[in-house]
Amino acid sequence: MSGILEARIMSNPMGRWYIEISDEAEGIKEYCLDFSEFESKIAMMGDKYGGDIEVLWSSDENVTKEQINEVRMHMLEYEARIAEEDKLNPFGGGGAEEGGFNPNG
Prior knowledge:
The chain is α+β, with helices and mostly antiparallel strands. It is built from two helices and four strands, in the order βββαβα. Helix content is about 35%, strand content about 25%.
């Protein structure tokens, strides 16, 4: 069974971005203060779906383009690592699979 997780880029009053991950089906929300934390939590949340997940991205109105671009760069690096792991291990085990990054979609 595949799962749908929502990742929302938010900004705190100090101007620092963070990511809220939601699994509406399970009623779970997690907060990530950096991308390393996001990677860990998205993998953990995706485990219950066997890693078969789609991540729907959005951002709050007060998030700047620079903040979105910073998260986008981290996401591109993460997706490249996952793709390389999948190439090295074509029978699975490459980690959680996300849809393309679109913070406004």
